[in-house]
């Protein structure tokens, strides 16, 4: 039984959040934005985007013991969205990221640490949205939107053999999870595909096209697919596309409700039964980005305050059922080196992420209202 399943077994009531002051360490890493997956598995290296302006970013690896930084593909400058899309792959020997293809589209490229100046274009991922890396970065969960007579598909991509294992396509989904009048399978699209750690299940968002031809889909719903049973589980359209696997059966996500006010709730989703369960009494503001500790015993998430000027960091401990507010960060509101429009208040997404040993959390913040950088919360041993 996992830590989360034990939590569900004895859970009798939701508990409100309490304020806890933890050591907040504003690092000396400024002009930086953390990667999708910032830590190497042995925690010796940190991966992030280093920048001077939005369109002049480097992919940076920092040695945590020496503080030395190395820019990968240093002769190439990337935009921030590209540089922050990076993740460790192939047992932390390489970095996979998304970059512009120079024609208005994107492509996936690979840089190996043994050859830091060489960019490898992973052509087999052209047209695919590559999401979660599992199996020590050897396998990537992917989806692509169909076009030119090709149906939308979801796959697991082997980064060593460069081959896709197709799990299902739009036709499979149309016949299995969509009730009532069947839409044209050729118009269905997939997004936010995230595989469980054991590679057995995939969570994804389904877009059903608007019959009027309008660009926005008429329906967006979320589903899980079990590769062993071939079963699809339907969660409806009330959740957002920021899932995090708690264990091999449960996903943490954000539920959106509208009762005159737009509320969002931290929930768990059972991929076998389709049941959704609110984990806290707290209605959060903003999108929220839950992240589960490596041992599956704790969950951290960010949440914007109502005025949109700050972001609260919450920690839920499954062993005690305790919900704590770790911090409340200010948002970036001034331009720095042309990075943001100086006349527009821009919110920084902290995206709190656990270290591999589960003893600290790293996230994005701003320094003095003018500089992006990285912040660390320490002292999290055992909650």
Total helical elements: 3
Distance between the termini: 19 Å
Task: Kindly provide the radius of gyration, computed on alpha-carbon positions and rounded to a whole number of angstroms.
Answer: 21 Å
DSSP strand tally? 29
List keywords for this structure.
globular, mainly beta, 3 helices, 4-stranded antiparallel sheet, 383 residues
Task: Write structural notes for this entry.
The protein has 383 residues and is mainly β. Among the domains are: 37-119; 122-237, no CATH class. The chain contains three helices and 29 strands. It has helices at residues 3-10, 80-83, 170-176, and strands at residues 18-19, 24-30, 32-39, 45-53, 56-63, 69-72, 87-89, 94-100, 106-112, 115-121, 129-134, 139-144, 153-158, 163-169, 189-195, 201-208, 219-226, 232-236, 244-245, 250-258, 262-270, 276-284, 291-292, 298-304, 310-317, 322-330, 353-354, 361-367, 371-377. Mean pLDDT is 80; it is low at 333-345.
